[in-house]
Design a protein that fits this description.
The chain has a single domain, classed as NAD(P)-binding Rossmann-like Domain (Rossmann fold), CATH 3.40.50.720. 42% of the residues lie in helices and 17% in strands. The chain contains twelve helices and twelve strands. The longest helix is centred in the first third of the chain and has 20 residues, at 95-114. The protein is globular, with a radius of gyration of 19 Å. The structure holds nicotinamide-adenine-dinucleotide (NAD) and 2'deoxy-thymidine-5'-diphospho-alpha-D-glucose.
C-alpha cells in the first residue's frame, strides 16, 4: 500500500482522480488543496469518510507549510494537479499563475527530493505546445511554444520538472492532456458554462467566429491515463493524452442546446479572447503503445453523460454560482 499525495484534489480533474483511486486498489490518499475559488470539497462529499482518504488544506507555494505536510505524511508518490487553470483569468492577471504553477511546482519538487518521494507525476497540458493550423498533431517532440500566461506558466513548470530529472535524477513523469469535460467541472469553462447558462435561459457567449478547435476528452479517461503513467510510466518521459474528438466550439455549443432541447437563439457571439489559440489536437500514440491506455468515451457519449449530470446536479452548480460552496469546508471540517 502506498501513500499518494494528490495536490489540487478538490478541483475538477483532481477530485475525479481521487475518487478513481479510492474505488480500486489500496492506496492511501492525502488530498492537499488550498481551496481557491476553484477548490470545492463538495466534489468529494461521497468519499470524505473513507478511511483511506484525508484532506489537508495548504498552499503549495508556501515552502514552510509544505515542509510540514511532507514531514508528517512522507508520501511515496506525488500526483500534482494543483494549478490556476483558467486562461481568461490569466489574461486579466497572471500573478497567481506564476506563484502557484511555477513557484508551487518548484516547492513541491524541492520537498519531494528532500523527503525522498519515489515518484513525482506532473499533470500538464497540451497548451504548452502552442496552436496548430488546420493540419497536424502535437507529439511529445513538438517544441514548447505556449501562448497565454496560463500555458506559459504551465510550460515553465514542465521545465522545472525536466530540470529536476536532469540535474537531481528525480523520478518524474509529465502528462500532457487535451481539454477535459465531465462531472464537477467549474462552470467557467466552455462546456459547463454553456450547459448552466442554457438551463437558466441565459445567453451563451461564443468567442470570435466560434471555429476554434479543441480535442475533447472525458475526465475519467484522462484520470486513467494519469494512473497508468503513475504506475508504469518511465522516469523522465512525457506522455500525451487526447480524446480523438476534435470539434469546433460552435459545434459543441449547438450540440449542448440540442441535447437540452433549447433553441440556438441563445447563442451570442462575443469579442474574441486575446491571443486565442486556434486549434489543439493530440497524438497519443506513445501512451497507447507504452502504457496500454486508450480513451473509452466517444465525444457523443461523454457529452450526453455530462449534460445529464449537470441537469441532475443543478444544486451542485447553483451552489458554485452563488458562492455557497465556499462555506462547506468550515461546516464539515471546522477549519478557517
Ligand atoms: P481546477 O481549476 O478545477 O482545480 C485546481 C485545484 O488546484 C483547485 O482545487 C484549487 O483549489 C487548487 N489550487 C490552486 N492553487 C493552489 C495552491 N496554491 N495550493 C494548493 N492548491 C491549489 O483545475 P483542473 O481543470 O482540475 O486542472 C487540474 C490540472 O490539470 C491543472 O494542473 C491543469 O493545468 C491540468 N489540465 C487541465 C485540463 C482541463 O481541461 N481542465 C487539461 C489538461 C491539463
Ligand atoms: O487544452 C487543455 C486546457 O483546456 C487546460 O490546460 C486548461 O486548464 C483548460 O481551461 C482548457 O483551456 P481552454 O482555454 O481551451 O478551455 P475553455 O473551456 O476556457 O475554452 C474552450 C474553448 O471555448 C476556447 O476556444 C475558448 C472558447 N470559449 C470559452 C469560454 C469560457 C468560448 O467561446 N466562450 C466561453 O465563454
Amino acid at each position: 500500500m502506498s501513500k499518494i499525495l494528490v495536490t489540487g484534489g478538490a478541483g475538477f480533474i483532481g477530485s475525479n482522480f481521487v475518487r478513481m483511486l479510492l474505488q480500486g486498489g489500496d492506496h492511501r490518499i492525502v488530498n492537499l488543496d488550498a481551496l481557491t475559488y476553484a477548490g470545492n470539497l463538495e466534489n468529494l462529499q461521497d468519499v470524505e469518510r473513507n478511511e483511506r482518504y484525508q484532506f489537508v488544506r495548504g498552499d503549495i507555494a508556501d515552502a514552510k507549510a509544505m515542509d510540514a505536510v511532507f514531514a508528517e505524511h512522507r508520501p511515496d508518490v506525488v500526483v500534482h494537479f494543483a494549478a490556476e487553470s483558467h486562461v481568461d483569468r490569466s489574461v486579466l492577471d497572471a500573478t497567481a499563475f506564476v506563484r502557484t504553477n511555477v513557484i508551487g511546482t518548484q516547492v513541491l519538487l524541492d520537498k519531494s527530493r528532500q523527503y525522498k518521494t519515489q515518484r513525482f507525476v506532473h499533470v500538464s497540458t497540451d497548451e504548452v505546445y502552442g496552436s496548430l493550423g488546420a493540419w497536424g498533431y502535437f507529439t511529445e517532440e513538438t517544441p514548447i511554444q505556449s501562448n497565454s500566461p496560463y500555458s506559459s506558466s504551465k510550460a515553465a513548470s514542465d521545465l522545472m520538472v525536466r530540470a529536476a530529472v536532469h540535474t537531481h535524477h528525480m523520478d518524474c513523469v509529465i502528462t500532457r492532456c487535451s481539454n477535459n469535460y465531465g462531472p464537477f467541472q467549474f462552470p467557467e469553462k466552455l462546456i459547463p458554462l454553456m450547459i448552466a447558462n442554457a438551463l437558466e435561459g441565459k445567453k451563451l457567449p461564443v468567442y470570435g467566429d466560434g471555429k476554434n478547435v479543441r480535442d475533447w476528452i472525458y475526465v475519467t479517461d484522462h484520470c486513467e491515463g494519469i494512473r497508468e503513467a503513475m504506475a508504469n510510466g518511465k522516469a523522465g518521459e512525457v506522455y500525451n493524452f487526447g480524446g480523438n474528438a476534435e470539434r469546433e466550439n460552435i459545434f459543441v455549443v449547438k450540440e449542448i442546446l440540442r441535447l437540452l432541447g433549447k433553441g440556438e437563439d441563445l447563442i451570442h457571439y462575443v469579442k474574441d479572447r486575446p491571443g486565442h489559440d486556434r486549434r489543439y489536437a493530440m497524438d497519443s500514440t506513445k501512451a497507447k503503445a507504452t502504457l496500454g491506455w486508450t480513451p473509452r468515451h466517444t465525444f457523443e457519449e461523454g457529452l450526453r453523460q455530462t449534460v445529464d449530470w449537470y441537469v441532475q446536479n443543478k444544486a451542485w452548480w447553483e451552489r458554485v454560482r452563488s458562492g455557497a460552496y465556499q462555506t462547506y469546508y468550515q461546516q464539515q471540517y471546522g477549519g478557517r
